[in-house]
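Lecture 7, part 2: worked example. A protein chain together with zinc ion.
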Amino acid sequence: MNAPLSAKVVQANVNRRVSLLARYFGRTVLAIGAHPDDLELAIGGTLARLARGGARVIMAVVSVPADFETRSAEAQRAADILGCELRFLMEDGCRRIDDIKNYQLVGMLDGLVREVEPAAVLTHSASEFHRDHIAVHNACLSTQRLKAFDFFHFNPTMTRAVPVAFHPRAYVDVSETLELKMQAIEAHASQFGSRGLDTELFRDLARLNGRMVGVKYAEGLDIGRMLLA
Ligand SMILES: [Zn+2]
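Predicted complex, written out as structure tokens:
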């Protein structure tokens, strides 16, 4: 029979219990999106929560397909709202991911992973319908060989509701940061203001994900790889 645990041992284990914030406190979390606004739509609440909890959060945007000045300024405003650092991987103006070879995309992401040494990488899932998003997902799969980081995939990003086969295995409670996420999405005014798109879709998704796990708002993640230490 196991000996009863002392109160001290129980408390020590409770303190060690790994919450999202404790897991990444003081460490680097790297979020990689194909375009400006992808990260805000999918995991804006998660990124804000991590940043407020003491993680260094880097939002890496692979390409800006059009209107570089406007879209990069909007992305910077959104990153500021979420409290994250912003990087553009193709800094030389408007370029499409299709314009570069796969090995070049992998090389870019490898360089970033070597530089920032992330404890976790969050990126697009394989269930995407946008070819650029799938290309980024596949390139991120390759970067896993460099370092043992946690690897998560997020809900396919869309500006209008589309049926997708994505099944989250983990949920992040974003009840406290959902309003920051909504502000960050609205910072992309060229996408949501002038095109007349409804940002409430993202509140609806967070509410639905929250219902899955009994909180007000949540964002869903699929797990590619995760160390339970
Ligand atoms: Zn995109």
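The mean pLDDT is 91. Residues 40 and 175 are 15 Å apart (CA to CA). Keep this in mind for problem set question 3.
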